[in-house]
Amino acid sequence: MEIALIKLLLAHVLGDFFLQPDQWVVEKEKIKLKSDKLYWHVALHIVLVFIVFFSFDVWKQALIIGVTHYLIDAAKLQFQKTNTKRVWFFADQLMHIVVIVACWLGFSENAKIDFSFVQNTKVWLYVFGALLLTSPTAIVIKVLINRFIPSKGSISLQNAGKFIGILERLLIYIFVLTNHLEAVGFLLAAKSIFRFGDLKEGNELKLTEYVLIGTLLSFGIAVAVSLGITSINV
């Protein structure tokens, strides 16, 4: 990746996450375009572009990033609702990154995005393995252990178990692909420590057995799929 793109991304991360106080965010969401913090925030992004390049020759990039940053943030402040904040956060960041990449491609002579990886068989194989370990495996495990679900009122977050399982399987997938099998054992130990307190408090054998069945199935399928993917010669 060219250093110019890294510098532009660094300036964005600094401006949006490190140098923007929580008070600014609160005020902007409260009074929207009337907040002077919005304009200070945009000005900060412009200044940061000059700082990371240590040159005024990038004034065009700085100006484009500043203007588009204002327009994107203004749209977010105007249209986001309480129940759409998460969506707008990711949409906002994605649009900023698109602008940054466009600036890089437009003003850097050697800037070029290489899409040849799309034709790489391993890329498609790894994507397939990762997708297989998310919802499909969650559904398989749910079907397999459905008969063992303890008849007790739920006290956990909705779908929490499903997403915990997806995350742990993806982590195992990454660990196996990068040949860090010791990390799989660490993950299992860490989960066991957290689960031990819950099971101890619950003091119920059926719940303990149910959790163990689900955990071992999740880990077993994740390891099997990961080893299967790595064993395919492409």
TrEMBL record:
The keyword Zinc does not apply. InterPro entries: Phage_phiKZ_Orf197 (IPR021737). The chain crosses the membrane at residues 39-59, 87-107, 123-149, 170-190, 210-232. Keywords: Membrane, Transmembrane, Transmembrane helix. It comes from the Bacteria. It holds the Pfam family DUF3307. This is DUF3307 domain-containing protein. The lineage of its organism: Bacteria, Pseudomonadati, Bacteroidota, Sphingobacteriia, Sphingobacteriales.
